[in-house]
C-alpha cells in the first residue's frame, strides 16, 4: 500500500515464481495483475517469471496458455508489446512436492537462472495451489534452502486462502510455515484487502477529525456487515460443500471489514502497528457458549429459484454436492466485542450465495436522537442515521440523515449525502491484485494477514462451527435462490429491535 506521500516506485529486481501456474487463479488474476503493473511501469527492471509445472510442458505452450488467459481476463485493452514483455521473461521449471528430488534440481536451476536474469537472488514464491499443497511445497523449498535469506537477498512466500479450515488446522499450518520461514517473509493473501474501498476504511476513520470522537458505544447503536452474492455455487461444488459460507467468507473477508472498522488507532501506519491492532480487536470478540452460538446465528441453504431471469436449481443438486448436504450457503451471526470502545454494541454479519443482489457494505447505525420535540410527526417512521461504506458494486460512502421538508409545517424526511469514488477519481480498471502483488515485491506486508490475526479470526468462529456440526440438519433453514436470504436472519435482528438495512 504505497504511502500517500510517496509515488509508487519500481520494486527491486526479482524472480516471481508461481506454483500452480497452469491453474485458474494464475490465468484469471495473477498474470492480468502483472500485466497491469507492467503497463503502469511498476514491474522491476530485472524481472522474470518462473512457472513451476509438475510434468514437462514446453515454455511456448505455457506462454500461449497464459496469453490466452490474459486476453480473456484482462481489465484493460491488451497492448501486444507489454504482454510480450511480461510473458517473454517466462521460464518453465519442473517440481513436484511428492518427488523431493525435483526440488534439488530446482534449486540448482535457480542459481543459473538468477545469474542470467540479474534478479539479485530476490525471490517471491507465489503459491496459487490448493491449500493442502501449502505446507508440502514450503517444506521442500525450505529443505533445499530456496527460502533462506542471505547476502541481502530477500525470499518471500505468498499464500492464498483458505488458510486452514478451523482454529486447530490454521495453528498447525502457521506452525509448519513458521518453522521454515520467518513471519516477515510470509504474505497471507485476503483479496478483500486489495479493494480500494476496504483500504479506505482506515483513511476514513483516521485521516478525518470528525469520525473518531463518535466511533464508539456512546454513539453507535450497532453495525451491520453484509456480503451478499448473486453467484450460486456452480462448478465449485466439491470445494464449497466441504467449506460452507461461514468458513469461506467470515474469518477472512468479513473479519477484514470488521477489524478495520473496529480497531484502535495504530500509533504508526506500518505493518506491525496496524496488524497488531487488527489482531487485538479480533481477539476481543466474545467467545460464545454452544447455546449462545446457536441462538446468535442463522445458517441457510438455498433451494431452487430465479436470480433475475436465470433459473437456479437446489444447492443439493449442484454437481459434487452431497444430495443430503447440510452445508450452509448463507450465514448470519451476531457478535459482540468485549472492549471499552465496543462493549454492548451488537455486530450483525451476513453473507450468502444465490441471493437477489450482489452487495458488499458496512452500515454503521448511530443512536437515535430524542425526538420529543417532533412528537407530532410519526417518529418511528423517521429515517435512521446510517453511515454506509459501500464496497460493491457502488464504491463510496453514504450518510443518511433527517431533514425538514420545505413548507409551512415541520415535516421530516430522510435524505442521503453520497460520495462515489467514480465521481472524483479516475482509476485504471484493475483486478484487485495489483496492490497486493506490488506490496509483496516492495516488502510491505501491511495488507496481509499475520499469524495471530488469522488465528484470532478462527477462534471467533470456532464456537459456531462446533455448534453447527453438533446440530447437524437441525436449525438449517431454507431460502429461495434470488431472495434476500432466510426470514430467520431478519428475526435475528428483530429480536433486538433492529432490522437489516434495505439493500437496493
Ligand atoms: C472468495 C470466496 O474468497 O471470495 C468465493 O471463496 C466468493 O466464494 C468470493 O465468491 C467473493 O469475493 P468478492 O470480491 O466477489 O466479494
Walk me through the topology.
Elements: E1 14-19, H1 24-39, E2 47-53, H2 59-73, H3 80-88, E3 90-94, H4 101-117, E4 123-127, H5 134-143, E5 155-159, H6 167-180, E6 186-188, H7 196-206, E7 220-228, H8 237-241, H9 244-262, H10 271-283, H11 290-295, E8 297-303, E9 305-307, E10 310-312, E11 330-336, E12 346-352, E13 359-366, E14 386-392, E15 396-404, E16 412-420, H12 421-424, H13 434-442, H14 451-471, E17 476-480, H15 487-494
Parallel strand pairs: 1-2, 1-4, 2-3, 4-5, 5-6, 7-12, 8-17
Antiparallel strand pairs: 7-13, 8-11, 9-10, 11-12, 13-14, 14-15, 15-16
Helix pairs in contact: 1-2, 1-3, 5-6, 6-14, 7-9, 9-10, 9-14, 10-14
The structure holds 6-O-phosphono-beta-D-glucopyranose (BG6).
Organism: Nitrobacter hamburgensis (strain DSM 10229 / NCIMB 13809 / X14)
EC number: 1.1.1.49
Pathway: Carbohydrate degradation; pentose phosphate pathway; D-ribulose 5-phosphate from D-glucose 6-phosphate (oxidative stage): step 1/3
What would you say this structure looks like, in words?
There is one protein chain. Helix 6 (167-180) links the parallel strand 5 (155-159) and strand 6 (186-188). It is globular and about 80 Å long. It is of the alpha/beta class. Strands 16-15-14-13-7-12-11-8-17 form a nine-stranded mixed beta sheet, sandwiched between helices. A six-stranded parallel beta sheet has the order 3-2-1-4-5-6, with helices on both faces. It has a two-stranded antiparallel sheet with strand order 9-10. Helices cover 35% and strands 21% of the residues. The mean pLDDT is 94. The structure holds 6-O-phosphono-beta-D-glucopyranose (BG6). Belongs to the glucose-6-phosphate dehydrogenase family.
Amino acid at each position: 500500500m504505497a504511502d500517500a506521500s510517496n509515488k509508487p516506485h519500481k520494486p527491486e529486481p526479482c524472480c516471481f515464481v508461481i506454483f500452480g501456474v497452469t491453474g485458474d487463479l494464475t490465468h484469471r488474476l495473477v498474470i492480468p495483475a502483472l500485466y497491469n503493473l507492467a503497463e503502469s511501469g511498476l514491474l522491476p527492471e530485472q524481472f522474470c517469471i518462473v512457472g513451476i509445472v509438475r510434468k514437462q510442458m514446453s515454455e511456448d505452450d505455457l506462454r500461449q496458455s497464459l496469453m490466452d488467459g490474459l486476453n480473456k481476463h484482462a481489465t484493460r485493452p491488451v497492448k501486444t508489446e507489454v504482454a510480450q514483455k511480461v510473458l517473454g521473461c517466462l521460464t518453465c521449471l519442473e517440481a513436484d512436492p511428492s518427488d523431493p528430488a525435483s526440488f534439488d534440481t530446482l534449486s540448482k536451476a535457480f542459481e543459473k537462472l538468477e545469474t542470467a536474469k540479474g534478479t539479485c537472488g530476490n525471490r517471491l514464491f507465489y503459491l496459487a495451489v490448493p491449500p493442502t499443497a501449502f505446507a508440502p511445497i514450503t517444506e521442500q523449498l525450505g529443505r533445499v534452502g530456496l527460502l533462506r535469506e542471505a547476502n541481502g537477498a530477500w525470499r518471500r512466500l505468498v499464500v492464498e486462502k483458505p488458510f486452514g479450515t478451523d482454529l486447530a488446522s490454521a495453528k498447525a499450518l502457521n506452525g509448519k510455515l513458521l518453522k521454515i520461514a520467518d513471519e516477515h517473509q510470509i504474505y497471507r493473501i485476503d483479496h478483500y484487502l486489495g479493494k480500494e474501498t476496504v483500504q479506505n476504511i482506515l483513511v476514513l476513520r483516521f485521516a478525518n477529525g470528525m469520525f473518531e470522537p463518535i466511533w464508539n458505544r456512546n454513539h453507535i447503536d450497532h453495525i451491520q456487515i453484509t456480503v451478499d452474492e448473486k453467484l450460486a455455487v456452480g462448478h465449485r461444488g466439491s470445494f464449497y460443500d466441504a467449506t460452507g459460507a461461514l468458513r469461506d467468507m467470515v474469518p477472512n473477508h468479513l473479519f477484514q471489514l470488521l477489524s478495520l472498522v473496529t480497531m484502535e488507532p495504530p500509533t504508526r501506519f506500518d505493518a506491525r502497528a496496524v496488524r497488531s491492532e487488527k489482531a487485538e480487536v479480533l481477539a476481543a470478540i466474545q467467545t460464545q457458549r454452544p447455546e449462545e452460538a446457536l441462538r446468535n446465528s442463522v445458517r441457510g441453504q438455498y433451494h431452487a429459484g430465479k436470480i433475475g431471469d436465470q433459473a437456479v436449481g437446489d444447492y443439493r443438486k449442484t454437481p459434487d454436492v452431497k444430495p443430503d448436504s447440510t452445508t450452509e450457503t448463507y450465514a448470519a451471526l451476531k457478535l459482540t466485542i468485549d472492549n471499552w470502545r465496543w462493549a454492548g454494541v451488537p455486530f450483525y454479519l451476513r453473507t450468502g450465495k444465490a441471493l437477489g443482489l450482489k452487495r458488499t457494505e458496512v452500515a454503521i447505525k448511530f443512536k437515535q436522537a430524542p425526538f420529543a420535540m417532533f412528537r407530532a410527526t410519526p417518529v418511528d417512521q423517521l429515517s435512521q442515521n446510517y453511515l454506509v461504506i459501500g464496497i460493491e458494486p457502488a464504491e463510496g460512502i453514504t450518510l443518511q440523515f433527517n431533514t425538514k421538508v420545505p413548507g409551512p409545517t415541520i415535516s421530516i424526511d430522510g435524505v442521503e449525502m453520497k460520495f462515489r469514488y467514480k465521481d472524483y477519481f479516475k482509476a485504471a480498471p484493475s483486478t484487485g491484485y495489483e496492490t497486493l502483488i506490488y506490496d509483496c515485491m516492495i516488502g510491505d506486508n501491511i495488507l496481509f494477514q499475520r499469524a495471530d490475526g488469522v488465528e484470532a479470526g478462527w477462534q471467533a468462529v470456532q464456537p459456531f462451527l462446533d455448534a453447527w456440526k453438533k446440530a447437524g440438519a437441525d436449525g438449517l433453514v431454507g431460502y429461495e435462490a434470488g431472495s434476500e436470504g432466510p426470514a430467520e436472519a431478519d428475526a435475528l435482528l428483530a429480536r433486538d429491535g433492529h432490522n437489516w438495512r434495505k439493500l437496493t
